[in-house]
Structures are given as C-alpha cells and as structure tokens.
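Handout, page 2. Input:
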Amino acid sequence: MNKVVAVDGPAASGKGTLARRLARHYGFAHLDSGRLYRAVALRVIREDLDPTDEIVCSQAAATLDPAGLDDPALRTEAVGRMASRVSALPGVRRELLDFQRRFATRQPGAVIDGRDIGTVICPDAPAKLFVTATVEERARRRHKELLDQGEAAIYAAVLKDLAERDARDTSRATSPLIRAADAFLLDTTSMDVEAAFAAALAYVESRIGPAPAGAGLETAARDTQ
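Output:
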C-alpha cells in the first residue's frame, strides 16, 4: 500500500499547515485539494460562468490546468466562497476525483488535505487525520489571515461565512464533510502550530513509521531549487 496521509477538516482548522509540514517532514508530495476547487471557482468568476450550471462547471473542472494551481488569486475570500458553491456540484467532484487519486500514487508517498480525502478519495489511506476547531477560533484565524494579506475584513462577516460553509460542506449530498470512522480526531482550538504538529506527527508515525533519515532535508533542498 502506498504511504498516503489523508487530512480532512473544515476551513481554517489548520489542516493545510499540518499537511504541508507532514509532507516536508516525510519528503512526500503534497496536494491541497481545495486549490482544485478554488481553481474551478476562479475560472467561473473570470469567465462569468453560472455557478449553478453543473454541466458548465463540470467542464471547467475537466479542463483544469494544473499550472494554474499557484495563482495568488486562489487565496482571495471571493474565490473561497465560490469554491464552496461549485464544490457542492456532483459533476465537479467527479471530474476532480481521478486527479486526486492519481496524485495519491506518487512515490515515496503523498499527503492530501481536503474535506473528503479519508472518506472518498483515499478511503484505504493508512493514516487519516480529521483536524477541527471551534468555528469562533477558525473565524479568528481567518480574519487575522485576511488582515495580514491586506484585505478588508470584519470578524462577524468572516464568522458568518465560515458557518455557512460548514453547513454546505456537511449537508451536501455528494461527499459531505464527515470524519472517517478510522480517522484520528485532532482539535486544534487551544493548540499553537507546534503543539498541533507534534500531535499529528505522533499519530502519523504510529501508522506509517518515522520518516527516513534525511527525508525532510531532501524535500527542503528540492523546494529551494
């Protein structure tokens, strides 16, 4: 079985930060699956497509250019809101399913974070994390992130938006956000980044073993080239 670490959880829970650090630690490939949906959302916005038209949005997903996954515009709040809408369309999720499963076969391993990785994309992953935090704490983190990026943001509006996203993600008919039965629950509400990473790493090591000697250094070298 390929060494896959599936990291799921709601927005601003800290799953992305943990997934990136785990990937660097092990020298694994990393995929933020949310970027796939954000890339579709960005295309919907830029091309003025109808976000409720499943056929149109599915076509946008089917012709997704991986090169666009580094576009800085993907991190904007407007794209995030649109991504939450288009990700609820079954056709969009189907089109992106194969992309994610192919990524999971990368050697020597892969870390993928999202909302349905441990339940749908990689249900046989040997290590599964479900990262969460209270919606109030997640809103505080997202609000700070937006302010740090120079975006105008009001905490109450960010809190409302996250609550609405949670409702859409957990209630959609296709691939809802739920914790896999065999996923390790990690509540980061009262944790700083280092404590959360230590807890996540302890769990992952118990499932797939420690990282090979020098794995993190090799990844860091690749990242700087």
